[in-house]
Write a structure and sequence with these properties.
3 domains, two-stranded antiparallel sheet, 6 helices, 5 strands, 35% helix, 7% strand, elongated
């Protein structure tokens, strides 16, 4: 893979020591205690991690990467949606930005189309390592994997079974003349 040709996907201009970073990624070298004490080594290691993460984001959008995500999605590796009305819908990893150091990885629920903080232990991963496009490309590619029911359940706020008027989520949220008049007659 020629990273210089794919410079649109990976901003190489931000990486100062590109050749050293590539050597670090490709080598089997384990850092020693002396290396870990060196400030220069730690900076180089962080840049190597960032480049590896951006390559990972690019890889996930390939045919092979999407197949790996599909396998993990089916096996529920990324977890479930925390929203009760989603009925344990499987979620997909997602970043809120393609820029490094902007936000941590989140999970996207295809059913309610919301983004949540993941419950798994790898929460300390930069969201740019997954990118913003992964869940949407996944859903376009594997339409059969994300089965969404046609019935949409809305929460109805109520007290003792009586629906509340004027509350967000209520069918009576928009005021209509006859309901407003009848409510005013009761001086509530």
């Amino acid at each position: 893979m020629d990273l210089r040709r794919n410079s649109k996907l990976i901003d190489i201009s931000k990486l100062l020591n590109f050749r050293q970073i590539l050597k670090m990624i490709w080598s089997n070298y384990s850092p020693t205690a002396e290396d870990l004490a060196s400030e220069e080594f730690l900076e180089l290691n962080q840049e190597a991690s960032d480049l590896y993460g951006l390559i990972h984001a690019w890889f996930l959008l390939t045919k092979t990467g999407l197949a790996k995500i599909y396998h993990k999605f089916v096996n529920q590796v990324f977890g479930f949606c925390p929203r009760a009305l989603c009925e344990k819908q499987k979620v997909l990893p997602c970043g809120l930005s393609d820029e490094l150091w902007t936000s941590r990885v989140k999970v996207f629920c295809p059913k309610c189309e919301e983004v949540y903080i993941p419950k798994f232990k790898s929460i300390n991963i930069d969201g740019a390592y997954f990118g913003t496009s992964v869940p949407h490309v996944f859903m376009k590619t594997f339409k059969q994997a994300v089965v969404l029911p046609p019935v949409i359940n809305f929460y109805q706020p109520s007290i003792f079974g009586f629906k509340l008027y004027g509350k967000k989520g209520s069918l009576y949220h928009k005021s209509t003349g006859w309901i407003r008049k009848s409510m005013d007659d009761f001086n509530l």
